[in-house]
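Continued from yesterday's entry.
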Amino acid sequence: MIWTILIIAVLAALFILIKKNGSSELERPDPPDPELAKQFFSESERRQIEAERREIEAAERVMREQDEQEKRDKRRRGDGGEY
């Protein structure tokens, strides 16, 4: 009985994690409006925000490229990479 409850709890936790990670890109907020930012931030703050945004985009691009490379490697090895 206790094993059944533990298995159900683990499966529920996995489902929640998978659901959360899978939907993170879909729920991404729109980028901020540059005109609106001018009203609230100084020039140096806007430059810093823009630099951080570019840094985040570069990191996301690197992560996507790594994922794609891993998929290609898996397909070459034949161990079930996604198509």
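--- second protein ---
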Amino acid sequence: ATLDDSQETGAIPVDRVDAIDVEEEAATTNETISAQSRRGKKKNAANALEARDRRYLSYFIATNRCRREPWDEFFNNKNKLPGLYPRLPGTPCCDNCNPESFQVENIVLTASYPLRAGRARVPSPELRDALTRALDIWRKDVIDRDYPNQSIIVGRHILDDSVIEKIVARAHIIKDTNIFRRVIPWGYGRGRYGEEVVKIVTDTGMLYPDVEEVARQEAIREQAFQRLEIAAEKERLTKLRTVFEACYNAVYEVTTGGTVKKTRGG
């Protein structure tokens, strides 16, 4: 019964662990239960002993009372002799009885490089073609520069076609060599080769700017300029209002027989 039902009937509310594994307990009336289970569902207990272990484990985990209660009940400690080493006074009991002594640590793991790629804009066909050609030329030049006079190591060994495809597809998010650690795995990308490829991607991207990104940046600049104009107009009106109020008060606060002093401003 739920808490609402118990209030309506006048029954005493039960602890939340009383409802744990009700279906499993009903299913374990026989001593032996089939251990087969459907994929994605909880596996049934093999026998009554395992079912009892599961119930008490759930009781121990879910209880909001002292955790020694399910422990003592499971091992039938009330019918045993007292232990040789009783709990010392002031020693914490459990996380339910002394939550201040069992603080849950908040552990945050951070990586020095991106673990996943953000949403990247699709590069234009012109940029894709130009970047593919530039990377293909670069890996050929690397072989001539770093591995001359041999025919075993070729450009694909340094920069595979599959890596080029990933670089071209994510050209807009390649800013440094950290992206070659996890987002675009490339063993040679963590050193000098990675820096050279990043420069190629950056330089090629400047030759083929993204039309949508250019329009978006232009809209941002236009909005910023409009905000500056509005702020300047507000400041001008504030100054005019201040001057007007000062002149108004100077004229209408003059008493009979008084004179208004003429200043340099008129």
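Residues 1-14, 21-38 have pLDDT under 50 and may be disordered. DSSP finds nine helices and no strands in the chain. Will compare against the first tomorrow.
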